[in-house]
């Protein structure tokens, strides 16, 4: 598949995912090899009647809906960027409506798979909570409801060093709900569950869902990140409906949860406020951002710095104390490291602290995250002066401030 969009000819290179109404591909600009890759979302032609296709957000209707939402919500750092749109004409399938989007990295769903049983670190949970709440506060202020917030729809941006919301195919303007079936099983708010059942039974009317459904979904996502457990069956149980607060208390008090050793009472209270049964009593995104949980400083774990790409690499196991003390040897080694690192992209800066914290670590800032990812793949495990290199990413914001984390568990 190749098509013109965003002032260039783009070609789909590899599939990234597929849903009931669209397929997503990694795309490359043929006219400019230096241009960063993008995500191409191709909406599949509806195979059923127009009414059913529209009810499920499929086909051309889904394209128009998502395009309108992304155009109106363009510019916020926690919402995926829309580059352009076009129509492609493959010979067999008929016309495909396509969106050209910012290409993001690992999803929260993948992070959960890595942290199964022990949960995500508090640093990454806090980072995700803040970024998504800021995005929700923005889109709710604009009158939008996302209506399908789940781990697969929250992705990490390596360039902007934050989490972003994607997939606005089920979104709607509050008070003008034009989609019958909303949210994904396991992340569906109680009022949305009732509405979906009424729709399936052909019953019209009832209370329309509000932005409060997004807070419920995020509350479940964050509870899964903290606990390391999938909670679909838990939130659908009679016990949850009878006393969800007690179940949340139990999860936070559980000795099987590593994070319980960290004072996480503020997170527990925040999640309780987001998971209240009555949507009118649920915290708004703006109010949730005022939680004391966001005033607690957390440091990333080493696993976080391996999984979340940034433009900065941190190289370990290269310099010995002897090398740090010998100025001539130190200068020669740093020159060799710089030369090696330049093979994978443009190096903006290179820094080696001679004192703790970070003593002997090599910090390499690349011009973009794509170069740092290429370097991380090539340098990890590489032998340098008889030592095997360990390469992780490092937060660009912390590096720019000259802040080096004291400990990485």
From TrEMBL:
Domain Protein kinase: 10-294
Record keywords: ATP-binding, Kinase, Nucleotide-binding, RNA-binding, Transferase
SMART domains per record: RRM (SM00360), S_TKc (SM00220)
Binding site for ATP: 41
UniProt GO molecular function: ATP binding; protein serine/threonine kinase activity; ribonucleoprotein complex binding; RNA binding
Protein name according to UniProt: Serine/threonine-protein kinase Kist
Entry keyword Kinase: yes
Pfam families in UniProt: Pkinase, RRM_1
Domain of life: Eukaryota
GO cellular component, one term: neuronal ribonucleoprotein granule
GO biological process terms held by the UniProt record: positive regulation of translational initiation; regulation of protein export from nucleus
Stretches assigned to the RRM domain: 311-389
């Amino acid at each position: 598949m190749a098509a013109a969009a965003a002032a260039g000819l783009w070609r789909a290179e590899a599939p990234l995912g597929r849903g009931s109404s669209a397929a997503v591909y990694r795309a490359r600009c043929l006219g400019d090899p230096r241009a960063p890759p993008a995500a191409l979302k191709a909406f599949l032609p509806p195979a059923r009647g127009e009414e059913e296709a529209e009810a499920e957000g499929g086909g051309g209707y889904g394209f128009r809906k998502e395009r309108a939402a992304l155009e109106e919500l363009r510019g916020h750092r926690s919402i995926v960027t829309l580059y352009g749109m076009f129509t492609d004409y493959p010979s067999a399938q008929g016309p495909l409506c396509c969106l050209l989007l910012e290409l993001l990295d690992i999803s929260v769903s993948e992070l959960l798979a890595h942290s199964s049983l022990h949960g995500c670190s508090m640093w990454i949970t806090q980072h995700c909570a803040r970024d998504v709440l800021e995005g929700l506060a923005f889109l709710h202020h604009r009158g939008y409801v996302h209506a399908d917030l789940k781990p697969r729809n929250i992705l990490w941006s390596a360039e902007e060093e934050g989490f972003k919301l994607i997939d606005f195919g089920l979104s709607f303007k509050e008070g003008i709900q034009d989609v019958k079936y909303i949210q994904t099983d396991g992340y569906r708010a109680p009022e949305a569950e009732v509405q979906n059942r009424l729709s399936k039974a052909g019953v019209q009317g009832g209370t329309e869902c509000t932005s409060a459904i997004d807070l419920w979904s995020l509350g479940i996502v964050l509870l899964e990140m903290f606990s390391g457990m999938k909670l679909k069956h838990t939130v659908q149980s009679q016990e949850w409906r009878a006393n969800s607060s007690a179940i949340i208390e139990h999860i936070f008090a559980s000795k099987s949860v590593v994070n319980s050793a960290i004072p996480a009472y503020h997170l527990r209270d925040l999640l309780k406020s987001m998971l209240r049964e009555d949507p009118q009593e649920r915290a708004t995104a703006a109010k949730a951002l005022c939680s004391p949980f966001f005033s607690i400083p957390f440091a990333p774990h080493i696993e976080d710095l391996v999984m979340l790409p940034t433009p900065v690499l941190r190289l370990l196991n290269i310099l010995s104390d002897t090398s740090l003390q010998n100025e001539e040897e130190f200068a020669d080694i740093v020159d060799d490291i710089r030369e090696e690192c330049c093979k994978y992209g443009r190096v903006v800066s290179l820094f080696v602290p001679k004192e703790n914290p970070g003593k002997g670590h090599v910090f390499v800032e690349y011009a973009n995250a794509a170069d740092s990812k290429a370097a991380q793949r090539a340098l990890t495990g590489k032998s340098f002066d008889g030592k095997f290199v360990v390469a992780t990413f490092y937060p660009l914001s912390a590096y720019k401030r000259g802040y080096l984390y004291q400990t990485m568990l």
